[in-house]
Amino acid sequence: MPDTVYELFKNLGVWLTSGEQWSGADGIAHRLAEHLQYSLLATLIAAVIGLPLGLLIGHTGRGAFVAINLASFGRALPTVGLVVLVFLASGLSMWPVYVALVALAVPAIVTNTYAGMTAVDPDVKDAARGQGMRAHQVLFQVELPLALPLIMTGLRLALIQVVATATIAAYVSFGGLGRYVFDGLAQRDLVQVLGGAVLVALVAVVLDLALSGLQRALFLPHSRLRSSGGTPTRPA
Amino acid sequence: MTIDWSWIGDHTDDLTTLSVSHLQAALSAVFLGLLISLPLAVIAHRIRPLRGFLLGLSNVLFTIPSIAIFVLLLPVSGLTRTTTVIGLTIYTLVVLLRNTVEGLDSVPAKTKEAAKAMGTRPLRTLLTVELPLALPVIMAGVRIATVMSISLVSVATYIGDGGLGQLFTDGFQRNFPTPVIAGVVLTLLLALVADALLVALQYVLTPWTRKRGA
Amino acid sequence: MIQFEAVHKRFPNGTTAVHDLTLEMPEGGVTVLVGSSGCGKTTTLRMINRMVEPTSGTIRVGGKDVLAQDAAELRRSIGYVIQQAGLFPHRTVLDNIATVPLLLGWGRRRARARAAELLETVGLAADTGKRFPHQLSGGQQQRVGVARALAADPPVLLMDEPFGAVDPVVRTQLQDELLRLQKELSKTIVFVTHDIDEAVRLGDRIAIFRTGGHLVQCAPPAELLASPADDFVTDFLGSERELKLLSLTSLKDVPQTRATPLRADEPVSAVSGDGGRWRLVTSAAGRPLGWLDTDALPATGTAGEAPLTPARALRDTDSLLSALNETIASPSGCVARVDADGAVTGVTAREEIHARAAAAHAAAGAGAARTADATRTAHAESPSFATTATPTERPA
After folding, report:
1. What gap in Å lies between CA C312 and CA B143, rounded to an integer?
2. Residues contacting residue C169 through CB under 8 Å, at least 6 positions apart
3. pTM for this model (two decimals)
4. Is the ipTM of this complex over 0.90?
5. In a domain, B211, yes or no
6. Inter-chain contact A234–B91, Cβ cutoff 8 Å?
7. Closest residue, chain A, to C75 (C-alpha)
């Protein structure tokens, strides 16, 4: 066993670093670009849906119940099942992938936006209104800037989850880094499977570190407001 | 897309078996996760330098895709239930560790001080004061970990396990939606019921958090 | 002037916060709303700038019905200070203060200039402006809160327990500062507190509320203390009601006798007992040093070297209460009066202070015509200061 594991990782190293593996339509560079394209587009769509929803729920204080249950529902929804279901309903298209990825990202964005908005000190909102700010001024000049660190955390977590899950595009015959995982599984080529998995994990970890670093740099001025955790819905 | 009810009627036994197997995988993972994260959380809570390291490490683990975790475990434990449970346990660790540390942090210093002043030894303070008071936050973590695990079991279908997840592969390969719908609905149902049971358990375990008159 | 006319506030959950309130808050004066929690004082304040909408009744600020105005514009014309200051944590102190001018469209440069000016007004250093609120102490934050409310120079200032979250020492400082500012600015201030001492210190008029949103009594502090409308007010004012009244009256109108104090460098051998047993000793600058007992003079040395009983100098702005305390401490039964520079101007005997206290009491009591009779009888039974006075030797 240790011998085979050693052999395996040696082969994995060769697989990851060989030049031919990186070039061409089935090369890592192309698959990586596809993977990022799916992930960024899905996160963008999810942000367009989730941000206004989270801001609205947070600003009005109504629908908190929706936000909490949405997170729970998002956490419970099996992504594989969703992809297959949409695939069977819509046929061969990118729809299943995007529906599944967006469904995964929206709860993370909504709940963190909502959490950021509710974390704004009610006294500060009261003071803003009391100084004569109109509802939209309170929202954009006070609540939004103060909630921004947590909103950014929500977007970051959503993107990471989506990157991890975009692997699934290959399951319904599309590209991305998941290609290696599923092709490898089909061809019983463990090195290729591991290679794909390691690449996806690397992309996710690197993106997470880069974005949290960026976030830290952006919110240094009032560093006390910097948020820590944030709530991901679940890993992918 | 229509549901073939007769298929469901013919396969109730299979659905039951798969649900049980699904739940078994998820609950074993949460149980193992608790077993590992409780002592780790106590250490992370007491020893500051280790805390950042442990929480940071668990955050990195969380970003690794579940399919990647399962696949990475293949050389170690192969296409077995063990792989599924280990993979899921790694994820529950993240949530459970963070929530348990936060729960222990949330215990008021004055309460701990009072316990100490009355002559309670550290271990006893931990077991009879700190952990009970941290319970609401820990339970919140257990709920998240449970729902999450139930949803994630189906990913293990790629490595030949996956409980209800097998219905997805089955439906996909035969271009037949009914098992997929059944799988999704049952997964959601299991998550919902497990969550409700945990809420009830928490209600019984933490009478002091109930609202007055309740 | 702010006028409440038959104002009623009932919240959606059925609780009545303010019950049929008719009240006038005079122009340029401080009206303090006091009462225990849930008495409707904060709701009353918040209805003035429409943070809470009244269920019925009319509220006018400067003659104009608040409900007839745009809520946001109304609020920009009224300063608003709350507990914990409610500063915007993401904006610098300067930008916090500039909030309302910016909302009014002043332009950034002018708004910042005004904000910088206000920093000084509220006693903060200019470099405070560049900092963020969480980098300031509680007291400093509260000053910024006041500056922000004053930024657009509104005629009306609403203050909701603004000093509730700071420690007693800082609170006293902030109260002094507010009184100083008010002397310069003469705003119409509505101030909510649950601290009766703060109310007595700051208020030109005090309105006492009872749970359920009922206004029980509204009167100047002296009148309130001299003749509380009922047992509720009496209880609320507390057992030291008489003392609080004394703390409100200044020494200014109490006559003083010209004093012939001993200079500290005069030799004791030259001191005669003619000026009474106790003689006041002053420094070369005329500041009082203490009382010298002429019955126990040392054989040699100067008056300054002899054992002295300390004397606390009192200015015209000091209260009758501190003067009375001093007559008790003073062996001569007299207090030393000084001018603004601290130089002795004369002395006042205990009886004079007692007489003034009784007069102040009567005057305050007479202010409340409705309850005057009842009060006077009540006071006849309580030991009056005038009758407890004992004759004392008067120096000089």
Report:
1. 70
2. none
3. 0.73
4. no
5. no
6. yes
7. A132
